Amino acid sequence: MIETEDSAPAPGRRERKKRETRAALIAAALRLAVEKGPDDVTVEEISEAADVSVRTFFNYFPKKEHAILGRDPEETERAVRRVREAPAELSPLGVMRVVLSQALDDLDNVDDHESSIAQRIGLIMRSPALLAQFVMLGAEDERLLATALAERMGVPAPAVLPSLVVAASTLAVRVAMEQRKSGSDRPLRELVDEAFTLLADGLDRSYDRTGSSAPGTPEDSDEKGQA
Amino acid sequence: MIETEDSAPAPGRRERKKRETRAALIAAALRLAVEKGPDDVTVEEISEAADVSVRTFFNYFPKKEHAILGRDPEETERAVRRVREAPAELSPLGVMRVVLSQALDDLDNVDDHESSIAQRIGLIMRSPALLAQFVMLGAEDERLLATALAERMGVPAPAVLPSLVVAASTLAVRVAMEQRKSGSDRPLRELVDEAFTLLADGLDRSYDRTGSSAPGTPEDSDEKGQA
DNA sequence: TAACAATTTGCACGGACTGCAAGTTTGAGT
DNA sequence: ACTCAAACTTGCAGTCCGTGCAAATTGTTA
After folding, report:
1. Cβ A211–B163 below 8 Å, yes or no?
2. A-contacting residues of B 171-190, CB under 8 Å?
3. What is the pLDDT of residue A8?
4. Cα gap A51→A46, rounded to integer Å
């Protein structure tokens, strides 16, 4: 019992089988969702494919959508850790920019055989229920990240800036994904980058001044015109 | 058929009863949701209270949550119109700032007897399912607003800036609401305003030096480290 | 191996939602 | 007023999601 119980303590057959079952369910769920459409897959089919009872399915996931999304809680932990360990010189938004970029990299790699991420993104966009779940799961992550960021900034957790920065960051990714869905050929990274830059420099500055409501020093005519 | 079929053409008994039924369902749904909790109200109870069959309930709303949220599609139309008619000097974000502010005013007024909006906000925060639906409905609005804003800016609809500005604006409101939920005493308007200002000036600028994305140098230096 | 704990599974329900085929009601024409 | 058709409402049957419970399995340990 010297293990931390975290990464690979003393697996034991039991633990191993659980992981296997979970993986099997996620795999089956994704495959079937892609084949028949997210809303037309039944829990029964998924369970069948993973060779477990329907009841067992629900011992693993609270909602059908969770299995399809198959998110690994470790991803979030990693992101939070990265926020904590990020170079001290980085601004809050800078931190999020780096962390989210790394997260995207991770996803690209974990990519087992096929582009399971790409598939999931496609699915998410197609199914309202999935999108909803996706957002929900994301909300929890945002909370954790915001707390970590607030800590890092030395301000009370429930402050506007950290929450806003985190939310805006995930927003950058979301908007970028939507752009691609809308037919943009530009690589996802480029779109994400553009969004981050706009957020960093100020959404008003990207548009020529012409006044708006910048209290501080709105004086600054810059380019960035691209819309 | 001289009427526009919009506001009050030639109501007719039929149309009138439909509106009444709809209103009754929404009212019953909200009341019961507040009383017993959003997830513990059954469609049967709601229908019962509005004195219609369960089947009829589903002729009016696709999901139980829709009745509880009881959103008026006219709200969105009004917002879109306001975006189109907003003073030409306003920056994109400035437009959204004004429009959302007006929308909040509207909600405060429509406030029939009690604070139905406040109640709904409370409910939304309590129920995952409701929050999900809320986000979903909001997504559609965002699409419409983004299109209107893009038009106004004279850029192709699927551009990053308009989408980002719209999404960021609703984000400002969302974050403000969450802040209040987290115990902040500051008035909602003040929180919304702070968020908008941060977005307008740039999320990086709000944080003082310590480097990041230097204001004068929009060119991000590193990041992408392990892209 | 015996006793114990974690899992799996079947079963029975409750509740959301849908398609279908009657009833009812309303708006119009004649 | 009388008739018709479109618009609505309703009941019914049926599918699927998700949950509590208790019995049956299986892994873990002394």
Report:
1. no
2. 171-172, 174-176, 178-179, 182-184
3. 46
4. 8
